[in-house]
Write a structure and sequence with these properties.
The chain is mainly alpha-helical. The radius of gyration is 31 Å and the shape is flat.
Length: 734
């Protein structure tokens, strides 16, 4: 058998191979195979276990196997590997110098080049045909595009800086000339979104400040309107690098719009200084209404950044100002903002009263966005106070927000529903709302709420006993704004406490400090509950009482019945008698000593760890053995250890031994096989090489690597090695 390979996109009419292929096609013994590009799922499989983004690799490579393999091997993300640069330049240098110049000019355009722009840039179209033959360009009737985005980037990266500046200036001038011929140069607001964004790109790359200042605000506003919030934030940042080119009023608008976009994409820390500049500028201007609205935004952004006192101060000033301007809709917005802050502080009666005032004013003024915002506050205040009619208010808030495509307030209402249902430990009821909210936040690129919803997902999976999934979701929220980060830390520390993993105390201390900074019971309470659980699993009743008692008093004072019930249970177990609530809630049943009712309630809610904990309160060997079975299946070593000790005290023979040594020798709960895979991974072997060495399929190794990353709570192979060394699973120098 003779195996021949060739590039079918490089065959010309005078290539001798063309005739050979024509002759061979008639022979029965000749078979043609056309390798296909890698699909998206295939690229994800190859990228699995690395720090690379599979979607970005697929977009850069267009599924070209060589490009994918080089990106994975170099693990440089969006940077072009040197091997790819060499390969691309090798093709480029086969063109004539004049044709190379044209291809380099086209390469600085980071998108497809439409026919009008191509004709304006290129007079010698033979260069296009030559580049197409060399596999650099793809030519279509209405446009020309580089065969692969990685090809284009490789050419641009190889250009000297001076040459890159010159080429971008030529493209910018050509595009502006086309706009002049279209008759829109005098009215830049008429620019299409794509044109404005492209003009900003070339102005920035060419160092053309005048053009950048002219087009960046237009591109930013267009991007924000179309939901491309990260792009909008980037354009605003470019414009604000040249503050001296704008008037104070223009600057105030730009800083505020930039702050809102940064808030939207979850960059709360960066939003704060921008919004503070906007407020400072507006204080120097006569428009009091604009100042009031800016202060309302400052209040929201400050709260999102975990700065409660600053949020309250800005909210009070915003309400005072907007109450004087004579616009009932704007005044309603300020009142609703204060209602939200009261609700978040568990001042439910105050929050509900403010929300009702805002709803009345908004309804009279026809201010629909304010109506959704205030309905969410009212619903949560009512729900906190034990009135389940608040659920109806929240659903109406979602409906109203979606009717006007108000993504922020729809996400707020969805989060309120999900969070409240999870407070009641009803994960199955919460999940459909969470899925709808995630889809909405992803579609609208509302990254701030997306992170918060990942924290919700982490809570949901924790309740279900799906601890690896809970850790994975919490990791996605971990690097976000303080509220999401605090919730993520609470979930991560809960998993470590219940598994008996190292580092739980350190995570809990970080969570406690962050919760104290936020200064809201909805953050402080859950952290105190996990801390008291941790102390109970260590057998330290004094610590349980010291941690839980003051927060229990706050829960009673602020009428937080779910938190009150959980802490009452912890305190009762520690020997401190407190009055439990009389609500129908599993923790309340446990606080009243009804372990059977609590176990049944937890089982109905699908919460196995809590079901086992309720069963563990019994002195019945059958219930204790059932609890032990559940705990062993979850890997809940500390509580299982206490249950085994109790069974032995009761004289139960043949108490089950529990997990094998393979899953107990390391604090991450890895199996013996996973430890083997981890050691080879840490030594730098690829999944294929690991599969060969351990005589496994590559798919099996892929699965092991994914599970290892989840159990270690990391995202990349390098992080896995570092984490495993820190936990002592592998040595620092294997």
């Amino acid at each position: 058998m003779l195996l021949l390979t060739y590039r079918d996109d490089e065959l010309s009419r005078d290539q001798p191979l063309t005739q050979l292929l024509g002759d061979a096609s008639h022979a029965e013994q000749v078979h043609h195979l056309s390798p296909q590009r890698l699909t998206g799922p295939a690229v994800r499989q190859l990228v699995a276990g690395s720090s690379l983004d599979a979607d970005e690799v697929f977009a850069l490579s267009d599924g070209n196997p060589y490009f994918v393999s080089e990106l994975v091997a170099s693990a440089v993300g969006s940077n072009v590997p040197p091997t790819v640069v060499d390969a691309v330049l090798g093709r480029l240098r086969r063109l004539s110098p004049a044709h190379q110049d044209i291809v380099e000019l086209l390469a600085v355009v980071p998108s497809s080049i439409d026919r009008q722009l191509l004709d304006a840039l290129v007079s010698d179209h033979s260069a296009i045909a030559a580049a197409e033959q060399r596999g650099l360009l793809t030519v279509q009737p209405g446009r020309v595009v580089f065969r692969h985005e990685l090809t284009r980037r490789a050419i641009v990266d190889a250009l000297p800086v001076a040459r890159r500046l010159e080429l971008n200036a030529r493209v910018l001038a050509t595009m502006e000339g086309l706009d002049t011929r279209r008759g829109i140069q005098g009215d830049s607001s008429s620019l299409a979104t794509t044109d404005a964004s492209r003009l900003v790109h070339h102005a920035s790359e060419a160092g053309a400040i005048d053009a950048l200042v002219r087009y960046a605000p237009i591109a930013a506003r267009d991007a924000a309107t179309s939901g491309a919030h990260r792009e909008a934030a980037a354009h605003y940042t470019l414009a604000l690098e040249h503050e001296d080119r704008f008037t104070p009023a223009e600057l105030a608008d730009l800083f505020e719009e930039c702050a809102v976009e940064r808030y939207t994409i979850g960059a709360a820390a960066d939003a704060v200084p921008a919004q503070r500049r906007a407020v400072a500028l507006r204080r120097q201007l006569p428009d009091r209404e604009a100042l009031g609205l800016s202060l309302r935004w400052l209040s929201r952004i400050m709260w999102f950044n975990g700065r409660r006192a600053d949020a309250d101060q800005a909210a009070e000033e915003a309400t005072a100002l907007l109450g004087e301007v004579g616009d009932e809709g704007l005044f309603a917005f300020a009142l609703s903002n204060q209602s939200q802050l009261a609700m978040l502080a568990h001042r439910s009666q105050e929050g509900a009263a403010l929300a009702r005032r805002a709803i009345a004013l908004a309804t009279a003024a026809g201010a629909t966005p304010v109506l959704s915002h205030a309905l969410t506050n009212l619903g949560l205040c009512r729900w906190e106070g034990g009135d389940r009619a608040g659920f109806d208010d929240l659903q109406e808030a979602v409906r109203v927000a979606l009717s006007i495509d108000d993504v922020e307030d729809a996400c707020r209402a969805y989060v309120g529903i999900v969070w409240s249902l999870l407070d009641e430990f009803r994960p199955d009821d919460a999940e459909p709302f969470m899925i709808d909210a995630l889809k909405l936040a992803e579609r609208a690129e509302f990254i701030g709420f997306l992170a918060y919803l990942q924290a919700c997902r982490a809570r949901l999976e924790l309740a279900r006993g799906q601890w690896d999934a809970a850790v994975a979701a919490a990791q996605l929220a971990f690097g976000s704004q303080p509220a999401s980060r605090c919730a993520a830390l609470t979930v991560l520390s809960s998993v470590r406490v219940r598994r008996g993993d190292a580092g739980a105390a350190e995570l809990l201390e970080e969570a406690r400090q962050l919760a104290d900074q936020i200064d809201e019971l909805q953050r402080i309470g859950p952290v105190a509950a996990v801390r008291s659980e941790h102390a109970a699993l260590r057998g330290d009743s004094t610590a349980v009482i010291n941690i839980a008692e003051p927060i229990f008093a706050d829960a009673v004072r602020l009428r937080a019945p779910y938190l009150q019930s959980e802490l009452a249970y912890r305190l009762r177990k520690a020997g401190r008698a407190v009055d439990p609530t009389d609500i129908d809630y599993p923790f309340a049943l446990q606080a009243r000593g009804d372990w059977q009712g609590a176990a049944q309630a937890w089982a109905e809610r699908g919460c196995p760890y809590h079901q086992a904990a309720a069963l563990a309160d019994s002195s019945d060997p059958g219930a204790l053995l059932e609890a032990l079975s559940i705990l062993d299946s979850l890997g809940a070593t500390p509580l299982a250890r206490q249950v085994r000790a109790r069974l032995r005290e009761l004289g139960v023979p043949n108490v089950p031994r529990g997990p094998t040594a393979g899953t107990r020798v390391n604090p991450a709960g890895l199996t013996e096989r996973q430890v083997e895979v981890l050691r080879l991974l840490a030594a730098g072997l690829t999944n294929s090489e690991i599969a060969t060495q351990l005589v496994l399929s590559v798919r099996t190794v892929d699965r092991h690597v994914a599970e290892i990353l989840a159990k270690l709570g990391v995202r990349s192979r390098r992080q896995a090695r570092t984490r495993a060394e820190a936990l002592g699973i592998i040595t620092a120098h294997p």
